[in-house]
């Protein structure tokens, strides 16, 4: 039988998933940040702030922000002095990020970002090139997650660190049921009202359900060669920060 992977609740070929995910993010790129605020009540900003504090970017460090899209993580990293390469497979998302960076440059002086279209599964960067690798709310959309983790390990220098911020399944009783109801019934309606696209946001919610549980994903990070792996649940695991080191 030919290989299949999940696209939401559907099983499709790897090639079809890559194409469909590309179409999703091309569709929502212009409203992506507005929708993040609407869906999370602005809490995604706090999660991202906490995530970057865990990364602890240092002045002059080379950091790859994969699936960096519209630049939310990269701007925070660069503001702390890191040299950031923002990569995404989707050029529409990168274009929005570049526009945002140009506006921010005029207002706050954020500079020194490199923008590079990349497939997380097949990076063009040399071995042992970066001090840190970050990916926020992107890895669940990768077609072959194990390949992306292997590439993350490859491009990190020894002593480099991997950090991932991603949705998971909350383990808090009561809150889990309430969130399931909200995400399945209301998020697609928000997508239709704000982004004009209910189906893309229905997929994004389904993709969370199909993503490996926190501890299973931590094991995948270890299997990719990372040591001292750790998972930090937020809101009982609704969101989680995973990390590991290349030693």
Describe the structure.
The chain has 247 residues and is of the alpha/beta class. It has one domain: Rossmann fold. The chain starts with a strand and ends with a strand. The chain has helices at 14-28, 32-40, 43-55, 72-79, 91-108, 145-155, 175-185, 187-195, 198-210, 214-223, and strands at 5-7, 10-12, 62-66, 83-88, 114-117, 130-136, 156-167, 227-234, 239-245. The strands form two sheets. Strands 5-4-3-6-7-9-8 form a seven-stranded mixed β-sheet, with helices on both faces. Strands 1-2 form a two-stranded antiparallel ribbon. Helix 5 (91-108) links the parallel strand 4 (83-88) and strand 5.
DSSP helical segment count: 10
Topology, number of strands: 9
**Order of strands across the biggest sheet?**
5-4-3-6-7-9-8
Radius of gyration: 17 Å
Q: Helical residue percent?
A: 40-55%
Q: How would you name the oligomeric state of the polypeptide chains in this document?
A: single chain
Distance between the termini: 38 Å
Poorly predicted segments: none
The string of secondary-structure elements, in order, is EEHHHEHEHEEHEHHHHEE
Total domains:
1
* Average of per-residue pLDDT values: 90
Could you give a short account of the major beta sheet?
7 strands, mixed
CATH first level = Alpha Beta
CATH superfamily: Vaccinia Virus protein VP39
Tell me the CATH topology.
Rossmann fold
Query: Which percent band covers the strand fraction?
Result: 15-25%
What's a quick, concise take on this entry?
The protein has 247 residues and is α/β, with parallel strands linked by helices. The chain has 10 helices and 9 strands. Helix 2 (32-40) runs antiparallel to helix 8 (187-195).
